[in-house]
Design brief:
Distance between the termini: 16 Å
Strand content: 5-15%
Largest sheet: 4 strands, antiparallel
Helix content: 55-70%
Radius of gyration: 32 Å
Number of helices: 25
Number of strands: 11
Shape: elongated
């Protein structure tokens, strides 16, 4: 049987017949697409934009499981921290203490606040404990708001009492006594970020006076700040759309070249947002970069199709045939590229972070819809619309990129040089990639710029205090009252000492310290009695004495649960950078491993608080990154190999991905951008999106080789034709992304835009230079020995 016969290729012949059937009824199919578009458009009004803190947490991680168990009793990661700083003197003045108390009361009245977990030096739970001459233990609040003006002598005594209390001096009052903290926990199920943020900002304005600074930090404030930029995000979207429209007009200068890619983007976006609505998901303000990127990719595919259509019009007088030829030439590589995009998006769901799982579900389907809304609909639309009057493509500055690349890779020698240069860059990229950290690489939040009010507040608080970021380590005994056992308390005391060996730990709070302090107090404040008693009943008596000394219910709630079976140890750190968290968790695991099983019935669990929750997020991001990228590489390699029936094709795409991804990580290492839950999706998407360019280039070289039967000529023709569309779509995408860099006050969006820009440039370079070089040097058979059957389908 003749290998060029359609009967020799039954599978492709069936697809060829399907193509004919599709183009025989273009209006029916376009009408169906329109009806589906109207259906999705009807769903759009129900889509909401908001952030849900629970979506950021990997719910299956053991740290988050612990966090969910203890957040109502000991607190979670939704902490508001207000720092009141005096510029002259210290906080122990009537004016400063009154202000601290007023702010404490306002924080305590915030929506969704956990009233049992509010702490400040003026709060009723901050108390001086002493023993009376009669032998009774008594306590009183350090600050009495009803007590009137405090005399200078009383202020001095108050200062001395606070300094003597390690639970207040250090955690709530800075060592230089110039700043006091108000700490509060918000209940996760009752979070209203906007209302909380607005009330705090109003409080800052109301309480703002000369000589006193008010700093506010914490997760709810961070999300509140992000919400403040929603209007700016919309403005940037509009600017981006205008820039892309202007570039389309400049590039094509034809109605079809401008309106059809725009229509493709609009229809694709309607389908995508409709899918979000059908899933019942929300749009997160910090995750808008991915939907924007998918829309930009829809435009890129639309540009490729219209560009190829005008080229085909020079070969076919009948515009129906030109549209059909465009479809046959671009649908297969385009679909392969879209599926690659979808794979990169879908694999993000491997991690246990709900935000990324939701993103993976709707974004992968959104990307796949491009096959129908762009790759199928645009050629059909071109076949239905009248033939354009002017079919010539005018030269412009963008087209010089393709011609320049064609000159650079002009022969086998220059191709070898390009591959050697790529190998050198790859080695350098591996070195700088090793500098990438897991988590955040600098203090404060990477979502905002370092000079932002939020990060300046974080810096001011961390500079003044030994530590404001909390790590919770929970001890569980097997029976009720088990925490009172002396051997359990001794073990927890040793754990505290071990954790305090880390110079970054600014302090600790736990039930062993409280028992030692009360024991000392009951022995005439003799330091020699700062020890844990040998009798469980005696320990229970000390705890009961402390509890009864306070008229406020639940005095022990911050240390143990009501059954005295679970205890919370709190350690204070200056920041939650990736290295700080890694060291803290390693230190805790080191002690647990060395002491596991030594105390019967005692179990130590990690980890809660801001440090514990961030550790879980970092570990989840690392594990996701560890699995997603290799799987993206393997699956795209396998698909390309299967699609082209060639190991060389898969290898070529694998090397293009490896080059672009390695240098992307090198960029992250040089710019100190960490791997976290925000950057992992962008990298995964970038790999899938970037490989589109290489697939289009490889496929065009193959088709030109069949037509010209000269490899050098085929490479030059492919670079100067498909390369034009690749360079323009890359430039268009970058031009749109640049607006996020220039205009966004959210550093994360700016950094994400820069990262995407780097990935687009690297992937564009791989497609325009490395893929042609690889073909010229290695002369793969699936290209050099390709032929066309009688249906016009190319085979190896």
């Amino acid at each position: 049987m003749d290998k060029k016969s359609s009967q020799a290729h039954k599978a492709t012949h069936f697809l060829h017949n399907l193509d004919e059937a599709v183009f025989a009824r273009p209006k029916w199919i376009l009408s169906f697409i329109l009806l589906v578009t109207l259906f999705f458009a009807y769903q759009i009004p129900s889509v909401k934009m908001y952030s849900d803190f629970a979506d950021l947490l990997p719910q299956e991680h053991t740290y988050i499981e612990l966090h969910n168990e203890i957040k109502e009793s000991f607190g979670g990661a939704n902490v508001i921290i207000v720092g009141v700083e005096v510029e002259k003197g210290d906080i122990f003045t009537n004016e400063a203490l009154e202000k601290i108390h007023r702010i404490t009361q306002q924080v305590d009245s915030l929506p969704g606040i956990n009233h049992n977990l509010v702490a400040s030096v003026t709060h009723r739970n901050s108390r001086k404990v002493w023993m009376t001459p009669e032998g009774n233990v008594n306590s009183e609040a350090y600050y009495d708001p009803q007590g009137g003006v405090i005399t200078p002598e009383a202020l001095i005594e108050l200062r001395e009492n606070v300094v003597a209390d390690p639970r207040v001096y250090g955690p709530l009052v800075s060592p230089d006594m110039k700043m006091a903290l108000i700490k509060a926990q918000l209940n996760e199920g009752q979070l209203d970020y906007v209302k909380t943020f607005n009330e705090i900002q109003q409080m800052r304005m109301d309480e703002s006076v000369a000589g006193i600074k008010i700093h506010v930090t914490g997760q709810p404030m961070l999300v509140g700040w992000a919400y403040q930029y929603l209007d700016q995000i919309i403005e940037i979207f509009l600017f981006t759309a205008l820039i892309m429209l202007s570039l389309l007009i400049f590039y094509f200068r034809k109605a079809y070249g401008v309106l059809i890619p725009l229509a493709a983007v609009i229809v694709s976006s309607i389908w995508g947002i409709g899918i979000i609505s059908l899933f019942g998901y929300n749009l997160d303000p910090l995750g808008l970069v991915i939907p924007f990127l998918i829309s930009a990719r829809a435009m890129s595919h639309g540009i490729q199709i219209v560009e190829r259509y005008y080229q085909e019009l020079n070969s076919h007088a009948d515009h129906h045939l030109a549209a059909r030829s465009t479809f046959e030439n671009l649908f297969r590589p385009g679909s392969l590229g879209v599926v690659s995009d979808a794979i990169g998006l879908l694999l993000i769901a491997i991690g246990s972070i709900p935000l990324n799982t939701k993103l993976a579900h709707y974004a992968s389907l959104w990307a796949l819809c491009i096959i129908i809304t762009v790759l199928l609909a645009v050629p059909l639309l071109l076949s239905v619309l009248p033939k354009p009057k002017k079919t010539d493509i005018k030269h412009n500055i963008f087209r010089n990129v393709g011609f320049a690349c064609a000159e650079i890779i002009s022969d086998r020698r220059s191709a070898k040089n390009a591959l050697w240069l790529a190998a050198f860059l790859l080695v350098g990229g591996w070195y700088f990639s090793s500098k990438v950290v897991i988590g955040e690489s600098e203090p404060g939040s990477p979502i905002l710029y370092q000079d932002h009010d939020y990060n300046l507040s974080s810096k001011a608080i961390n500079d003044s205090f030994p530590g404001s970021e909390e790590l919770y380590i929970v001890a569980e005994a097997s029976e009720k009252g088990g925490i009172k056992r002396p051997e359990v308390l001794e073990a927890l005391s040793r754990l505290e000492k071990h954790m305090m060996l880390d110079p970054e730990v600014g302090g600790a709070k736990g039930i062993p310290d409280l028992v030692k302090q009360v024991n000392r107090l009951l022995h005439n404040d003799d330091p020699r009695w700062t020890q844990i008693p040998n009798d469980k009943q005696y320990v229970g008596g000390l705890m009961f004495t402390y509890m009864m000394s306070s008229p406020i219910p639940g005095a022990l709630n911050e240390f143990v649960d009501t059954d005295e079976r679970i205890a919370n140890l709190v350690f204070y750190y200056k920041d939650h950078q990736g290295e700080t968290i890694r060291r803290a968790i390693h230190q805790a695991k080191e002690w647990i491993t060395a002491n596991e099983g030594k105390v019967e019935g005692l179990k130590i669990r990690l980890a809660g608080g801001t440090i514990g929750v961030t550790a879980a997020m970092n570990e989840a991001a690392y594990e996701t990154n560890l699995w997603v990228l290799p799987l993206v590489f393997i699956l795209i390699f396998a698909m390309v190999m299967f699609f082209y029936q060639s190991l060389a094709a898969g290898t070529m795409m694998f090397m293009a991905m490896l080059f672009a991804t390695t240098l992307t990580y090198a960029y992250m290492g040089v710019t100190h951008m960490g791997i976290n839950i925000n950057t992992v999706p962008i990298i995964a998407v970038g790999v899938g999106v970037g490989i589109d360019y290489s697939i289009y280039m490889m496929d065009r070289i193959r088709s030109e080789m069949v037509a010209l039967q000269d490899l050098n000529a085929a490479v030059r023709k492919a670079i100067s034709t498909t390369g034009l569309a690749i360079s323009f779509t890359a430039i268009t995408l970058i031009a749109g992304i640049v607006m996020w860099v220039l205009l966004s006050d959210l550093r994360f969006q700016s950094d994400a835009a820069l990262l995407l820009t780097v990935m687009v440039i690297l992937n564009g370079a791989a497609a325009m230079l490395l893929v042609p070089s690889w073909v010229l040097v290695f002369k793969p058979k699936f290209i050099c020995e390709a032929y066309q059957d009688e249906d016009g389908v190319i085979h190896a």
